[in-house]
Amino acid sequence: MPSPRSSPKSSHERRAHGNKLEFISLTSMRNPGPPESPSRRREGTASTGPPQALPEEDCMKLNPSFVDIALRSLLAIDLWASKKLGVCAGESSSWGSVRPLMIVVEISGHGIPWLAGTLYGLCRSGSSAGREVLLNLLFALVLDLILVAAAKGLVKRRRPAHNKMDMFATISVDKYSFPSGHATRAALVCRFILHHLVLALPLRVLVVLWVFIVGISRVMLGRHNVTDVIFGLLMGYMQYSMVEYFWLSPVTAPILFMLWS
Fold first, then answer.
1. CA-CA 20 to 30 A from 102: which of 21, 24, 33, 143?
2. Of 214, 115, 182, 200, residue with least CA distance to 174
3. Which residues are paired to 176 by β-bridges?
4. Is 224 a catalytic site residue?
């Protein structure tokens, strides 16, 4: 007796039933947990909160101010000009043959010759007026050394990369370049000499020229950037005002004048 065939209806039902089981198994694997309710979904959104804002410093980096852009541009121009003007930075530079002369100018603005000369003048001076001027010049030179060392230690700007570290009698802070100590000293001494020494006009012009030659030599030797020298000249010019304000006299500093009498 032939085996009864399955009716189309029963095979269709089994196929549909099989498809249903397969569909349910796939969905259960993808979503193992129960569906979230609308209330829980709202709570989850509220807990996450709005997106956090960027820190203030990141916003400043993304949106630099006009002042920041201007300062960076001036710094780039300063570095470029200083490298172009450093024509005596080494013997192989374009103006390397002038380097020995620039070294002489460098020594003329160094602190040691000026301190030694002032102390020698104090020891040899025979008038009270001369001792007063020389003592205040010594005070000005020491004040300059302190203020320049403090500024260099605070700013800590490295010297130009093309500088050759063969400077005369340096100390630890001399590895920094801002401001130029030679420029501050030259401007300070220039104002001091013009105010307290009676000089003929040609000598006064030579003193002013010496200041600018010292400043230019710092850039030509590669010791400083242009802004180091400019700020140094301004700083030395203002230091003289401090010396005048704290001027030492036999009335204000009698002990010092007794030591040098």
1. 143
2. 182
3. 158
4. yes
